[in-house]
Design goal:
Length: 389
C-alpha cells in the first residue's frame, strides 16, 4: 500500500485528489489530511479515508476537530506547526495543495522526509525555488508538477533532451474578464472576478486568473522548475483552456498537451507517474470543439506579466516579495479595500520599495530569510494600502 498525505485536503485540488484516491482506496494508506476552517469536511474525509491524523491550521478549531473525530481512533491536531509535523510523517507521496505561501514550510517538510511531492502549490517555487530544489536534491525527494501547465510541459518533455528545448508556451484562459474592455477592469468586483469561464478552482486562484497574477506566478514557477531562461517562457491567451502548454524544440516542432479542463488529469498523472493509468476525465471530441484560438497576452492590460519578468531578472528573494505582496493585495481586493487594477499597483510599489531598501540580491537563500521577507512584504503592502487607497 502506498502511504499518501494530502495537505490542503479540503480545498479544490485536495478534494479532486481524494476523489481519485477514493476510487482505489485499497491501494492507499492515507497518513495525514490537513485543512482549515471546514472542520466538517476534514473530519468526514478523514473518517471515510481512514486517515491516521487530521489537522486544521487553526488552533482555535482544535476542540471542534477533536470532537468530530471522537471515537474514531484518528488523531486530531491544530496549528501551523501541526500541519508541518503532519507533512513530515513518513509517506511515499504527498500532495501539496495548501493555498499561498502557507504551503511552503509543510511542502519542505515533506521533501525533507523524502516523499514524492505532488506540487500544486505554485507559491512554493515562486517564493523559494532554489531552496526547495536544493532540499529535494539533498533528500532525493522527487517533485512532480500538478499545475496543469507545468504537468503539460513535464509530459511533453518526457524522453526529450532539455537542451533541445527552445521555448515553452503557457496558455491562459484570460479568466473572468478576458472579453471586458480594459477601461472597465478598474470597476470589477471580487464576485465578478471569482467566476471562472472554464475551471472550477478555489476563490483566490480564480481571481488571480482574472488579473493574470496566476499566469505571472506560473511563468516564474516554470523558470524555477524547468531551469529555463525568462526569455524562453511565453504566455498566450487561449480562451478554450484545452491546450495547457506547448514545448518548442530546436527543430521547430511544437509539442502541445491537449485535454479537458479537469485537474484530475494533472493530479492523476502525478499520482501514477511514471505510469499512465486510466483517469475519469472527459475524452475530447475534436470535431465538436472545432476551433482552438490563441491571442496575445497584453502586458499593458496585465501588468502582472511584466512584473513576473522583473522578478525573474532580479532573482533572489524577489519572488517571495512578489508573492507575499500579491497575497496581501488580493486580501485587500476581496475585502473591497482596493480595486481590481490596484492590486498590481500595490505589488509593483512593494517590489520597488523593498528592492531599494534591502539589498535583497545579497540575501542568503534560506528558509528564515524567505519567511522574513514574506512577512515584511505583507507589512509594506499593508502600509501602502493604508496610505494610498
Ligand atoms: P482552495 O482555496 O480551494 O484550498 C486551499 C486549501 O488550503 C484548503 O484545504 C484550506 O483549508 C487550506 N489552507 C488555506 N490556508 C491555509 C493555511 N494558512 N495553512 C494551512 N492550510 C491552509 O485552493 P485550491 O484552488 O485547491 O488551490 C490550492 C493550491 O493549488 C494553490 O496554490 C493553487 O494556486 C494551486 N492550484 C490550484 C488549481 C485548481 O484547479 N484549484 C490549479 C493549479 C494550481
Ligand atoms: Mg495553472
Amino acid at each position: 500500500m502506498r502511504r499518501v498525505s494530502i495537505l490542503g485536503a479540503t480545498g479544490s485540488i485536495g478534494q479532486n485528489t481524494i476523489d481519485l484516491i477514493a476510487r482505489d482506496a485499497d491501494a492507499y494508506q492515507v497518513v495525514a489530511l490537513t485543512g482549515g476552517q471546514n472542520i466538517e469536511q476534514l473530519a468526514e474525509d478523514a473518517i471515510r479515508m481512514r486517515a491516521e491524523v487530521a489537522v486544521t491550521c487553526h488552533e482555535a478549531l482544535y476542540p471542534a476537530l477533536k470532537s468530530a473525530l471522537a471515537g474514531t481512533g484518528i488523531a486530531a491536531a491544530a496549528g501551523d506547526a501541526a500541519v508541518a509535523e503532519a507533512a513530515a510523517r513518513p509517506a511515499d507521496w504527498v500532495m501539496s495543495a495548501i493555498v499561498g505561501a502557507a504551503g511552503l514550510v509543510p511542502g519542505l517538510a515533506a521533501i525533507k522526509q523524502g516523499a514524492t511531492l505532488a506540487l500544486a502549490n505554485k507559491e512554493t517555487l515562486v517564493a523559494a525555488g532554489p531552496l526547495v530544489l536544493a532540499e529535494s536534491a539533498k533528500s532525493g525527494a522527487r517533485i512532480l508538477p500538478v499545475d496543469s501547465e507545468h504537468s503539460a510541459i513535464f509530459q511533453a518533455l518526457a524522453g526529450e533532451d532539455i537542451a533541445a528545448v527552445e521555448r515553452v508556451i503557457i496558455t491562459a484562459s484570460g479568466g473572468a474578464f478576458r472579453d471586458w474592455p480594459t477601461a472597465a477592469l478598474a470597476g470589477a468586483t471580487p464576485e465578478q472576478a471569482a467566476t471562472h469561464p472554464n475551471w472550477a478552482m478555489g476563490q483566490r486562484i480564480t481571481i488571480d486568473s482574472a488579473s493574470l497574477f496566476n499566469k505571472a506566478l506560473e511563468i516564474i514557477e516554470a523558470h524555477e522548475f524547468f531551469g529555463l531562461a525568462p526569455s524562453q517562457i511565453e504566455a498566450v491567451i487561449h480562451p478554450e483552456s484545452l491546450v495547457h502548454a506547448l514545448v518548442g524544440f530546436n527543430d521547430g516542432a511544437l509539442m502541445a498537451h491537449v485535454g479537458p479542463p479537469d485537474m484530475r488529469h494533472a493530479i492523476g498523472y502525478a499520482l501514477h507517474w511514471p505510469e499512465r493509468r486510466e483517469l475519469p476525465v472527459e475524452r475530447l471530441d475534436l470535431v465538436k470543439i472545432g476551433t482552438l484560438s490563441f491571442r496575445a497576452a497584453d502586458t499593458t492590460r496585465y501588468p502582472a506579466l511584466r512584473l513576473a519578468r522583473e522578478v525573474m531578472e532580479a532573482g533572489g528573494l524577489a519572488g517571495a516579495i512578489f508573492n507575499a505582496a500579491k497575497e496581501k493585495a488580493l486580501d485587500a481586493f476581496i475585502a473591497r479595500r482596493i480595486g481590481f487594477t490596484e492590486m498590481a499597483q500595490v505589488v509593483e510599489a512593494v517590489l520597488d520599495k523593498m528592492s531599494s531598501e534591502n539589498g535583497l540580491e545579497n540575501a542568503i537563500f534560506e528558509i528564515d530569510a524567505v519567511l522574513d521577507v514574506d512577512r515584511l512584504a505583507r507589512i509594506r503592502a499593508g502600509e501602502l494600502i493604508d496610505q494610498h487607497f
